[in-house]
Amino acid sequence: MKRVMTNPRLIALLGTLVLLSSRAAGGQGAQGTPRRVAVATHTIGRGVSLSANDFEYRDSTLHMTPDTGVIAAGWVTRRVIAAGEVLRSPAVEPPTVVTANQPVSVEWIDQNIRLTLRGVATRNASIGTRVSVRMESGRRIDGTVVGTGRVRID
Description:
single chain, mainly beta, five-stranded mixed β-barrel
């Protein structure tokens, strides 16, 4: 039978190293900084557009960095959300404002000059995301969705 030696100092040193390394890597330890997170007030089905009654903001000491600061009414659930669950991506996503094969206005703005052309979006996208647009000439241009049916060339 193999005998394992345990040294109390060695165990305490290893525990301290693990604690320090988790804090250095961005962990917050047992006393995390409170932050506001969006939490479901009841069970929400898949594909539901969130309303103000579906979630509330609460203080939490999560050890991860949830991207819940921008959750708002109108966001859509991608799966069933349990009551009390923190709302974050990819479980919820912003609403789609440009759909695939939808005609869109392509804008280019430079100081006092504004150029607007028509094109067709190649995929679904929400505000702030990049999307490729097929122009009438057949050329593809990438831009950022800035509104319903509107794409801006950077």
